[in-house]
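Re: the 477-residue chain
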Amino acid sequence: MPTTQIKDPVHGYVELPDALVEGVVDTRPFQRLRYVRQLSATHLVYPGANHTRFEHSLGVYHLGRTVFENLRRQSYFARDATTDELEEIQRTLECACLLHDVGHPPFSHLSEGLLDEGVLRERVAETGLVDAFDRAGVGGAPLRSANPHELLGCVIIVEEYGDALRAFDVDPFEVCAYVLGYSLAYERGEPWQYGVGAQLLHSPIDVDRLDYITRDNEMTGAGVLSFDVERMVDAYTAHPEEGLALSEKALSTIGNYLEGRIALYMWVTQHHKSVYANRLLQAMLGEYATETGESPVTVDGILDRELDDNAVLERLKAAARENPDSTLASMYDRFRGRRFPATCWKHRIALADRIGSDVAGDRDGDEGRAPALDEFTAWLTESDDRLERLLADALDVPVHEVWIDRSYVPAYDPDELEDIPIAYGGTTRSVGDWGLYGDRAFDVPIPFVFVPDGTKRRAIRVLREAFEREVGVASET
C-alpha cells in the first residue's frame, strides 16, 4: 500500500497510507487544525508553543497505530479475535485518532464556552448518532457528558468524512464513539478487543494524553518531563475483564510520566503569565460579542471550514480599530503589546508569605479542619466576580483591570492520573494501590490575582481584610 511520510519533531517520521492522507489529512476541515494552537495564548509566555492541533492529531495517530500493532503481537490479546476483527478495530482506531480533535474551535479549549450547545445537540441528533447509541444500548449519557468540541467533532466526522470512512470500511458512528470513549460494536456484543480500541483513545492512559504531554513539554522547551516514551508504548497490554493497562515494564517510567504531567500543568498551563494571557484573550472574545452583537466563534463558522485562530484574531483587530475607546480596544492593545501585569503572588509559597503565616497554617490545632490557606484560595475562587469588583473599587481602577483566575483548562487537573492501571499476574491495580508515591500529595493549583502595577500591596491588604471579615481568620500584619 503506497504511504506518505510526514516528519514530526516529537515522534520522527509518521507514516500514513496515501488513501488516508487523501481522504482525511489533505481536506479543508483537517487542514484547519494547522491554524488552531494547542495551547491557545501560551506562546506569549513560551515562544515555542506554536504547535497546533494538526501535528498533535498526527502524533496521536502514530502512537495509536504503534500501540495497537504491539498489542496484536501479544498472543493473549489476539486470542479469540479474528484477523478481520482486529483489522477493523485498527482501521477505526487510526481514523478516530486522526479526527478526535477536528471539532476544536479557535484557541482550542479557550473558546468552547462560546459554542451554542443547543445548536450543537440538534446537529448531533440530525446525524443519527443519538439513535446509533440507543440501538447499541449505550443510551445518551456519553453525548450528555461530552465537551462541545467533541460534539462538534462528531458532527464533522459524520457529515464531512462519512463517505470517506465508509470507503475505508470504517463505521463513522463507531469513530464518533471512540472519540467519546465507547465502542458501539463492543456494546453490541463484539469481542472485548473492540472496547480496548476505544480505551486507547479515551482513558487515563490514552495515547491522546501521551502525545500532548510529550509534545507540550518538547515544544514549550519547559524541560519538566523526562520519561521513556518508547518503553511506555511497549508496556501497553490488555485483558478481557480489566481492559487497557500497562505492564510492569512501565514501573520504571510511570513515576516520571505522572510527575511530568503534574509539572507541565503547574509550570506551563498554570504558569501565572499563561493564566493571564489566556484569560485576557478569553475576555477579548466576550468584549467582541458586546461591541458587535455577535459571537466571534460559532458552530456554523467552524462547519464552514474557515474559522481558526487567525480568522478570529483578525475579527478582534478590526473591532478594536472600529471602537478605539472601547474596553475591547484597551484589551487588544494590551494583548498585542504583551503588557501583562504581575500577579500578587506567583506560587503557593509566595501566597502563604503574602497572606500571612497564620493563614497558611492549621486553625488552632483543629485537626478536622483543612489548612486556612486552602480556605483562603477557595474563598477567592468562589467569590471571584464579587472580589474583583471589591478590588477595583478599592484601587479605583476599571473592573476589567482586576482579575482573579487560574488555569483556563481546570479539567486537566492531574489527580485523575493516579488511577493508571498496572497489570501483573492476570490482574490490575492502580498506581496508588502499588504505593509508588506513598503519602505524597499532588500540588494544588492556586488562584492568581492580577492588578495594575503599583497596586499589589494595597490589593493584598484589601483581600486579607475582607477574608478576616467574612471567614473570621485573623492574619499577621
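The CA atoms of residues 391 and 459 lie 6 Å apart.
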